UniProtKB/TrEMBL annotation:
One GO cellular component term noted in the UniProt record for this chain: cytoplasm
Family classification: Belongs to the RecX family.
Identification of the protein by name: Regulatory protein RecX
Subcellular location: Cytoplasm
Matching PANTHER family: REGULATORY PROTEIN RECX FAMILY PROTEIN
Function recorded in the entry: Modulates RecA activity.
Amino acid sequence: MKRSAPKISAKEAAVGYLSRRDHAKRELQQKLKQRGYSEQEVSDAVAYCQDYNWLDDARYAAMAVRNGVSKGWGMLRIKQEMKMKGVHDLCIKQALEEAEVDWFEQARAVAQRKFGDTQMDTPKEKARRLRFMQSRGFDFEQIRYALAVEDEY
């Protein structure tokens, strides 16, 4: 089903989206296309926003890292979220390097907040905690450090 022509210009729609929050370039393009704008209108609107520095993937990536860290996410989860939004790999890599986050301490803080000082006394509880930490985007070394697990798993 083809949508009817939107009532406002693609530039106005793009500025409206960006006034509410930062977007990745591809994310903004997809939103505009979904509203029924043509390829040309979308590319013109994106170029217009980039000219005024309202649309910047590097800034978006830095913000996404800060938000992810504040949500208690690990590097893998943050990377995945940005890839889904269409952020270029170089922007992701640069934002993660510039963030200067100690991912091992981030993992430990998340584990402490979630589990406190309760013991991991059963294999089932250990598996539950490992799954939780994995879902938050921490790798096995970080999880081992955070949960003070000595053995291989």
